[in-house]
Amino acid sequence: MTCSTPLFLSQIQEEKNIMAKAKIIGTGLYVPGASIPNSEIVALTGTTFPMSALEDKLGIYHRHVAKLRGIQETTTDFATKATQAAISNAGIDPMALRLFIVGTDSPEYLSPGSAVVLQGRIQGQQMMAGCFDVNASCASFTTAFEVAARMMASDSSLEYAVVVGAYNMPAFVRPDDSFGNAIFADGAGAVVLQRVDDSDPSGYIGGQLMADGTQWDYIGIYAGGSKNPITHERLDKGEYGLQNLKPLPGDRNIKLWPVLARQLVEKSGRRIADIDHIIFTQINRSVILEVMNLLELPPERTTTVMDRYGYTGSACVPMALHHAVTEGKIKRGDTVALIASGSGFFVGANLLTF
């Protein structure tokens, strides 16, 4: 009697031999209400911020803020509408999604997570679908993208996934915070991913994460968790919402991003010159242009959207990516890098062939 490998074992071995990766097949974006220009933000909030710094340095002229337009929408509403737009753009059945990840540090609730609420709205029933949130402050989307790509590469059941960056920091900005009212804005950006084999020229190449947890006490939302529950006393003292406890180093991203970009491309045997388009956290336009100069890349190889949307934190990278794709700045076959950093401090970067 001869022995042969059972069919299912052969299939498992064959699957292991096939290299797979995640490919972006759809993008989407959502912002609430009509745009609010700088002149109107002053009137709506009663706070001021040096206009020259806001416009000439940061590059912010407009933003969308739900609460200032009387719109009853928050984080998961933004995420849902961006996801619906990305699904439509991808042309897939929403019931085919098997993974939902929401990257945000301004969630709908502490618990349950925003991703499971999103899944319920998109699919409307119990499904064999994974759902979880990633909170890496403003690097939440790039970190979530890295996680999703790794999961899809190793699990053949994850044919389609959605990764969303959603931001509702204005909900946490105190009325007297001129910095917060001028800069932070609402929005969400989403990508639909498909698991493809290595013969497809498009797909995820790799990522790079970085952290420095000694900087946890610079800026954040420190009340409302288990350490600092919301109390009347804490509210009376103004110890709630977004708090700036220490000044952030002004040159941090200028020093960080070029090093990280080089590390990212070198891991895959590429060079900085191979990057066709690179998108950064949309906090400061002058910093982005300086980093592009340090990388010896022309400014045409980046996209900035803070002029239209203000600073949308964990949503800003996928929002800028959506614009770059829909405006034809990123085309199929292009090598694209995404780099985001935020308080904590977290950093996440992705490299892909679009």
Descriptive account of the structure:
The structure is a single chain. The longest helix is centred in the first third of the chain and has 16 residues, at 75-90. It is globular, with a radius of gyration of 21 Å. α4 packs across α5 and α9 (252-266) packs across α10. The N and C termini lie far apart (52 Å). The protein contains 12 helices and 13 strands. A 5-stranded mixed beta sheet has the order 1-7-6-4-5, with helices on both faces. The protein has 354 residues and is an alpha/beta fold. It is 33% helix and 23% strand. It folds into 2 domains: 19-197, Peroxisomal Thiolase, Chain A, domain 1, CATH 3.40.47.10; 203-353, Thiolase/Chalcone synthase (Peroxisomal Thiolase, Chain A, domain 1), CATH 3.40.47.10. 47% of the residues are buried.
Keywords:
single chain, 354 residues, alpha/beta, 2 domains, globular
Topology of helices and strands:
Layout: H1 7-17, E1 20-30, E2 36-37, H2 38-45, H3 51-57, E3 62-63, H4 75-90, E4 97-103, H5 114-123, E5 130-134, H6 140-154, E6 160-167, H7 178-183, E7 187-197, E8 203-211, E9 219-221, H8 232-236, E10 242-244, H9 252-266, E11 277-280, H10 285-294, H11 306-309, H12 316-326, E12 335-342, E13 346-353
Parallel strand pairs: 4-5, 4-6, 11-12
Antiparallel strand pairs: 1-7, 2-3, 6-7, 8-13, 9-10, 12-13
Helix pairs in contact: 4-5, 9-10
